[in-house]
Design brief:
Layout lengths: L1 H7 L14 H4 L19 E6 L7 E5 L5 E4 L3 E4 L5 H15 L6 E7 L4 E6 L5 E4 L3 E3 H7 L7 E12 L2 E7 L1 H5 L7 E3 L3 E6 L1 H20 L2
Parallel strand pairs: 6-12
Antiparallel strand pairs: 1-2, 1-5, 3-4, 6-7, 8-11, 9-10, 9-12
Length: about 220
Amino acid sequence: MALTLLLAGCFSPSDGLPAGEEAYRVIPVQSEDGALREYRIGVLDVLSIRTFQEPELTFDQIAVTSAGTINFPFIGELNVIGKTPQTLSDEIEAGLGTRYIRDPQVVVGVVSSAAQRVTVDGEVVQPGVYEIAGTSSLIESVARARGLKFTGVDDEVIVFRMIEGERHGAVFDLRAIREGRAPDPEIIGGDRIVVGYSALRGAWEDFKSAAPVFNVFRRF
């Protein structure tokens, strides 16, 4: 009786989060043409910046600080977080062209990306932070974590994402996605996936682990 009351009163982290069709408004599927999102620079990324015919303004590696900035000669501190490499190239060209160089040509590249990582947590076999190339999907991301544990709830898989500076979340039914009854949402760098916990299965696991102890006492 006490166990039933405990399970009935369990708090679910998915309470109040959109599910079903509403979930896909927050975390949509990949576009039909399969086009990848244009990359946005994130904190701790490492950039390469090459200025044509200006070796003193060419750098193989410039690290983005935790504040999302870099320091560039003649221009000073630049806020680069959320900008595309092309946008940053244009900004540096404008800054250099104002006073120092006539018609500068700047190319910004991404050497390594800290932002292209996805966290998979909760009731999965191997929780952790996983690298992705461009984008991934929910099925692929959970597979990287070796799938769900026995105590995982496949119809309560939450995806958290920062959108315009605010944290949003949505609940997905992984079983329906696997069976083709629901689309597989697109996962991007910075997302966090949390697989829900089944209190009932957890109680069963606890009971099984305690069973040998009960058997020992029954012998006396």
